[in-house]
Request: fold
Amino acid sequence: MVQPDFLFSALFVRPGRRHYYFGDYFEKRYERRYVPWVHYRPTRGSRDHNFTYYRHAYSGHEGWVSGLRGYYAARYSGEVPRPPRTLREQTRVLNDITVNKTVNNTVNKNLNITNVQNVSVLAPIRTVNNVRVTALAGLGRPRGAAAPIDRSVRIEKVGRDRLAEDRKVVDHYRAVVAERSRHEARLLRSGAVPVRPTDKPARVKFNLPKAPARLGVLPATSAPLPPQTPENKARPVKAEAPRPPRAAPSAGPPRAEKPSPARPGRPRQPARPPQKGGVGPRR
Reply:
């Protein structure tokens, strides 16, 4: 069984085939064909989707990304030993580490990776009960938060019947992929594929291979019901006793109005008599 944490330190992508590879690809002859997943870019403006996920998960751990990239650089330069290629080589290296009493020593002063972690690649499946997954959290310095990925996976023995069922499920998915690829190739040959963003998507109907019994039949999903408008229930009105009419205001004696004092005004001048020539007075 391959140790999960080892995959983070020796995972590569072959751009021409778009597959992942793990192991010792740190030699010069592999640089062009095998790219570390921490540096792989499917397009100019994007990164490997798995690396993007873990980069976001460890955004609160300062130095995790730079430490992981420095780990690859140290293996390329030979500063850190490359991973063993066989189980026999791994056993020999682990024995040497145990004899030299450097089990818990780090590989260098900049990487918080022990010598045992650096060379632990494989583990016999019969002797493993639990596998710890940390995504090499020791490479980063947490900012007061625990590691987002730190759990133990329990390993259980599976019977022959269960293995047979798993094989049927895997064969089913492979058959579905093959059928879909066949129809996609036919569309490409016919030229009936969308080219512009405004083109309608091409749809193809085909019969999927029969699913094994373990997958079962997915329940038919119906469209979600529209939200119901709450009922407008009127509150019951309580019967109240009639109120007595208000008494009209009593008519009192009329109020005597006080004469307003006359304001002194400017006396008007008498009009001038008309002048000769029929011209009236000027105002």
In short: The first strand starts at residue 11 and ends at 14.
